[in-house]
Amino acid sequence: MQTARQLSPRDWLVLVEAWWALLGSYFALRWMKFDHIQALTSPATGNGAVSSDVLAWAWRRQRLVSMAASVHLLSMTCLPRALALLWMVSRHGIPAQLCIGINKSAAGALAHAWVEIQNEKIGEPEDIDERFEKLHPVKR
């Protein structure tokens, strides 16, 4: 993880954006129905492949979201982090999706949220699909 001294002025602006996006996600999860939150962070529609430069850009945003979460006044778990990142990339027209997975064991169930862009798990290890079974949206 980079230190504050290594951040560029542009990174500082993204870090501030991430801090506010995390705060918005945190309160949205407490005050809004999840359907409304999903509508606010609806994925951008795009056709064609996303370039490796765009994926690198998204990974950079994810690292800055994590950095902002680590210094946030509130405890930021994976869901507000994922929602903040989803909002940040979607508003730039990048088609991304929120993924929520569950890991059931004898000890209980663990859940985790992350963002995917063209099946690439942004900020997550490659084996995330093995550790968490992805939940699929329920159609009404």
* Strand order in space, largest sheet: 3-2-1-4
Task: Name the structural class.
Answer: alpha+beta
Beta percentage is: 15-25%
Strand segment count: 4
In N-to-C order, the SSE pattern is HHHHEEEHE
First-residue to last-residue Cα separation: 42 Å
- Kindly report the oligomeric state of this protein: single chain
Catalogue the unreliable spans.
none
> Residue-averaged pLDDT, rounded?
87
Global Rg: 15 Å
Helix content: 40-55%
Instruction: Report the biggest beta sheet as strand number plus sense, adding barrel if it closes.
Output: 4 strands, antiparallel
Please tally the helical runs, counting DSSP H or I stretches of 4 or more residues: 5
What does the model show?
By secondary structure, the chain is an alpha+beta fold. The protein has one domain. Helix content is 47%, strand content 17%. The chain contains 5 helices and 4 strands; from the N terminus they run H-H-H-H-E-E-E-H-E. The protein has helices spanning 9-31, 34-40, 52-70, 78-90, 128-131, and strands at residues 97-105, 108-117, 120-122, 133-134. A 4-stranded antiparallel β-sheet has the order 3-2-1-4. A hairpin with a 2-residue loop joins strand 1 and strand 2 (108-117). Helix 1 (9-31) crosses helix 3 and helix 1 crosses helix 4. The longest helix has 23 residues, at 9-31. The termini are far apart.
Task: Give a brief outline of the structure.
The chain is built from five helices and four strands. By secondary structure, it is an alpha+beta fold.
How are the secondary structure elements laid out?
Layout lengths: L8 H23 L2 H7 L11 H19 L7 H13 L6 E9 L2 E10 L2 E3 L5 H4 L1 E2 L6
Antiparallel strand pairs: 1-2, 1-4, 2-3
Helix pairs in contact: 1-3, 1-4, 3-4
